[in-house]
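Suppose a colleague, Dr. K., hands you the sequence of a protein chain of 176 amino acids and asks what its three-dimensional shape might be. Before reaching for any lab equipment, you can write down a predicted structure in token form. Begin with the sequence itself:
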Amino acid sequence: MAQEFTIKSTNIEDKINQLLPSQGGAQPGVDFSASTMVVPIVDLTETAEGGAQREDLQKAYTLVNTITYDITNTTTTIANTPGFYKLVGTVSGRLVTSGVKAEIEITDGTTTKILVYNNVLSPDGTTAYQSFAIPYDLIVKLEAGDTLQGRSSNSTSAVTGIARQIADISGNLVNP
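The predicted structure, expressed as tokens, is then:
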């Protein structure tokens, strides 16, 4: 059998007044009570707001939300809006001179962090033709001022793929 008891806490009263002002919490002389009875709580907020979607469906690419890129012999911005991004693609190249590079990186203009990197050097010291392709599947968070970019060192290397924002900077999902 459940027991009832009164709660006397100004902190709890203040919080209830802040969260539920229309429930009479601001009226003097109202006591808050508690019970030892276990009451299950089911949070349906996300579903009620229409935001419930399976995770795999939430990350779907569409005609309007997909960023495509094919970067060769240059550095190109993929995204610079704060939030979370899903990227899928390859860094690839053909070694015709030593040091062919293809990479994906985050920069704030001062510091750069490489997320996917490939630097092909000829294993036998020659410049014989050799090819490489490395797939990637990333989820990246961009803070304010960050830029996600692809970099290709020459015309025989490339960063190709697709990206899409899956959540804003606060983690609120961006549905397709």
